[in-house]
Amino acid sequence: xxxxxxxxxxxYSMEWGLREDLRDCVVAAAPYGGPIALLRNSRRDKTPSAxxxxxxxxxxxxxxxxxxxxxxxxxHLGWTAGEDLLCIQEDGTVLVYNLFCxxxxxxxxxxxxxxxxxxxxxxxxTEFGTGVAILTGALRFSLATNIDDLKLRRLPEVPxxxxxxxxxxxxxxxxVTMVLLAMGQELFLLDNxxxxxxxxPAGPSGVxxxxxxxxxxxxLDGLGSTWDGGSCPCPWMGWNCxxxxxxxxxxIPRSRCWKGSWKEIMEAVGCxxxxxxxxxxxxxxxxxxxxxxxxxxxxxxxxIFRIASMAPGALLLEAQKEYEAASFGKCFLDKFPPEGFxxxxxxxxxxxxxxxxxxxxxxxxxxxxxLTIEVLLDRLVLRRLYPLAIRICEFLRLPExxxxxxxxAHWACYKVQQKDKSDEEVAQAINQKLGDTxxxxxxxxxxxxxxxxxxxxAIKLLEYEPRSGEQVxxxxxxxxxxxxxxxxxxxxxxxxxxTVVLHLKNELNRGSFFMTLQNQPVALSLYRQFCRHQERETxxxxxxxxxxxxxxxxxxxxxxxxxxxxxxxVAALQNALDEFYKAKNDFAAKATEEQIKLLRxxxxxxxxxxxxxxxxxxxxxxxxxxxxxxxxxAEQLYRDFRIPDKRYWWLKIxxxxxxxxxxxxxxxSKSKKSPIGYLPFVEVAVKHHNRYEAKxxxxxxxxxxxxxxxxxxxDLEQAAEAAIERKNEAEMSLVLSRCSPGTDxxxxxxxxxxxxxxxKK
Length: 761
What we know:
It is built from 31 helices and 23 strands. Residues 1-6 and 203-293 have low confidence and may be disordered.
């Protein structure tokens, strides 16, 4: 705390050289050592002159940028948390500039504000973001708690309010935004639904913690409005939060209210909001640390060097001496962790670097910790102080992604906006600076170049992007689809190729699209696969354009079997037959012709026999006819479609065995010499558990298969006889493996003797 008589120490001798008194300007100073915006208040300026300048200075008074004000009547200036300048006009339009006076966007506070105009305005900050509050000509308050998600809210009417209140502010508490205002000797609080009286003429009983008979005095954070329970014509508002202290009653002298000088304004910045003072007490003010001024006694140098002085300056000097002793002595301590000491030294060096007047960001240690190093780096980058930001990153040894890489990317995005060099020079300069630095996205930089109207520079920058998946989206956005297709194919990512191909399909006419694909075989192949499943008619057009009759024939075959009606299927196969003839593929043409013939025959059989034959293969059709006893019809198919003899005999004996028609099977075996031999007859009969029928065919089996046949039918005597007769050790061993010691002992002994004699020879 400090009394009013205590002087302030200026950190900077302001370099701006203003030509006008600040009382004739609209002023906004950003918190946390932020920039200062100035604009002549034309409502006070009655002399005709050139357009006023909107000027933005650093906290040390160095001019950052200026631009002639060409818009409407300005009411208020304020800064967002991201250091964008909000210019609130009389018609409710809010213009947004960056700290280099570059216009970003605008928005409106609604029709009601437009109709009634803006009398006063404030910019405030909550957990939701930066907000704007408006007092309209109808003496109603409207506000938006987040300008990035604009939702306007009209607050309740203040009873008895006939003119603008002498002071008001916006409060945020428990996710609720309210307006606190003073009118005469009353203090009102407006929320979403009601207007509450906190202090009335009867006394400040509504003020928490105020003593009986006390008189409330308001001191507003920002540029120094004061309300002492009566009327006070202080024009500056800027509350962010408020508090109360309990002291005896006595109003703050009106000499402490804002007079318009710059020194008075700066003295007011950072003061607390609500005080209560009493008779005989010296008015004192809660004073949080402020980035620009530090209160010290007037006889500072004397108090610093006075023996046994406990003045702050003397203590600071002593601390500096202690620091040197601590820095030296810590090296001799075994269990002293040096991290805290080192970190504090680093923080102080960073604070000292940014406090330099050429940088002009004077932060206290508390502010620095609240702001965080990441936000500080962002603000340095925003001011285009890239070398300093990089040096701080390197000094603090921040990770690449958190520090240097991010700053270099910002630098590159700024570089592409400079149009005094060619695209080739800018691209090379960026690549030489960034190289293959981890965390750098050339596609993001190229996007920035494209947004700035430098498409060719964007393409050159994309050449340095190693990830094709990052190149392609921007190339498509730039309508460089053919180049995007080439990059997608180079990546080997089929999904990426499909994305570009489908984009091309929607962008180009059909002919140009097909011609583009013709020059890219990989893309054409992938598109054909897509069409085969999704767009067969398009695939047909592709094959027609290429005169690819073979693939057209295949496509007709596939399409034919999607037809439910037999007539449609036959017609599609007929088209396929024509295409195969054009392709000079005789085998495919013959197979298709026979399929058409089979379909027609199956339809005839189905109609005549009243049994489903359609969609059966030729073999299944023959087998089904045999199973149903239509042997002559099966024979006819055998001859008409030239089924090989062996295949037909296998089909027939399996079908007859399945049907249990053993008589027909025996008759068939004697019809002519079997092309497959007679062992299959034995195997089929055994498979269907009929050894009796199988034994009929075993003697007809040739000698080399006879042992196997007799073993299958269980006649081990005949199998042993055949094996001994053939003098085949393997066959003897096969029979022995099937002999049972209890019942086949004699047979086994006979086989063993025959084997022994065979081995002697």
